[in-house]
């Protein structure tokens, strides 16, 4: 402290000063045995009073202390912290209005994703579905990698929750770039949001470019067959296409990380499919659930199931020759290996969970 003075223990003057201060204190404040409030650290006092170790100004009695980092301490979540947040928010708005921000060739907006979109998804992830993440350390800390997951739930919320899991839990703060179906990019609003989140078209060219740039790429090979399957076939993996994702990983030498998601199958139990409405609307299916469309917009609210997302051990692909990407037998074997690993983990997680909702 700037006003403190070091007084040797054997200094006679210090003892005289203390005796004089004690006498004056007793005369003004009461008996010597009465405990007086300590002076405030930040309060300014006259020079003579600071020398004698007392203050003449009234002192606020002890009360609840301000939290560490509040305005009383200078830098935290009090006035100073609020001012910084307001300043950061205004700076963010200024950049958005002036166009002073960057997006990559695919439309990914890292700043908007981190500061806005993830903040909107996070309450659903943490409070509504209460997602538990396992094995996130199996995702490489750097370099390109392909995360392959099962797909379910009638609406593709599982992909978004997987994206939040990687973003919030990976020790290297990596971001997952999802490959999405054509339908996503023809829907108004959804198209723009998907691009901003880093999603891109599910094609080999885009996937290879992202992997070559060292990005994490997420793919759900079941496609609409997985997300639109009946409730009676829940957690039974559909066919993984023709193994195109394996060919892409082989070309780039990127490891394949299997991912198993439990909990998404029950958010919209699909008990029927109106093919007529699906054709009229141009959708691959039109789900009928116990609540939708019977309850109108309220029926579109997903059930609050408890989720678990587990990332398995990566399957390396960098040990194969470049021409291996054109070997159909190898692609079939690796595709089957990934599929079996995901299916086995799904069964294991289903046995371990106590309830669909808890």
Give an account of the 3D structure.
38% of the residues lie in helices and 9% in strands. The chain has 358 residues and is an alpha/beta fold. The longest helix is centred in the C-terminal third of the chain and has 25 residues, at 328-352. The relative contact order is 0.11.
SSE blueprint and pairings:
Layout: H1 12-29, H2 47-52, H3 79-98, H4 110-128, E1 132-134, E2 145-149, H5 157-169, E3 176-180, H6 190-196, E4 200-201, H7 204-212, E5 216-219, H8 224-227, H9 244-252, E6 256-262, E7 272-273, H10 275-281, E8 287-288, E9 308-311, H11 328-352
Parallel strand pairs: 1-9, 2-5, 2-6, 3-4, 3-5
Antiparallel strand pairs: 6-9, 7-8
Give a quick summary of the entry:
By secondary structure, this protein is α/β, with parallel strands linked by helices.
């Amino acid at each position: 402290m700037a006003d403190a003075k070091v007084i040797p223990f054997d200094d006679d003057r210090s003892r005289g000063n203390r005796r004089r201060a004690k006498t004056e204190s007793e005369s003004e404040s009461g008996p010597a045995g009465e405990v007086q409030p300590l002076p405030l650290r930040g309060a300014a006092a006259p020079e003579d009073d600071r020398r004698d170790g007392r203050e003449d100004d009234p002192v606020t009695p002890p009360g609840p202390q301000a939290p560490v980092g509040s305005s009383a301490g200078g830098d935290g979540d009090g006035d100073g912290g609020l001012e910084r947040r307001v300043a950061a928010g205004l700076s963010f708005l200024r950049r958005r209005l002036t166009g002073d921000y960057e997006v990559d060739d695919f439309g990914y907006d890292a700043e908007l994703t981190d500061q806005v979109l993830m903040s909107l998804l996070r309450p659903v992830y943490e409070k509504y579905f209460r997602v538990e993440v396992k094995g996130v350390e199996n995702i490489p800390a750097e370099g390109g990698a392909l995360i392959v997951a099962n797909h379910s739930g009638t609406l593709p919320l599982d992909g978004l929750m997987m994206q939040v899991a990687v973003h919030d839990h990976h020790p290297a703060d990596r971001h997952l770039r999802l490959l999405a179906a054509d339908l996503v990019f023809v829907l108004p609003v959804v198209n723009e949001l998907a691009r901003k989140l880093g999603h891109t078209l599910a094609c080999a060219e885009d996937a290879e470019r992202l992997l070559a740039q060292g990005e994490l790429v997420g793919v759900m090979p079941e496609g609409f067959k997985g997300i639109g399957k009946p409730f009676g076939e829940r957690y039974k993996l559909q066919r993984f296409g023709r193994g195109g994702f394996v060919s892409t990983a082989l070309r780039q030498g990127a490891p394949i990380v299997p991912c198993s998601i439990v909990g998404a199958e029950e958010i919209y139990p699909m008990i029927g499919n109106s093919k007529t409405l699906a054709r009229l609307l141009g959708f691959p299916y039109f789900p009928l659930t116990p609540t939708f469309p019977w309850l109108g917009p309220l029926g579109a609210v997903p059930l609050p199931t408890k989720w678990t997302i587990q990332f398995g051990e990566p399957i390396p692909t960098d040990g194969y020759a470049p021409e291996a990407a054109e070997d159909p037998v190898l692609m079939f074997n690796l595709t089957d290996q990934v599929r079996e690993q995901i299916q086995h983990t799904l069964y294991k997680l289903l046995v371990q969970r106590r309830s669909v909702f808890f």
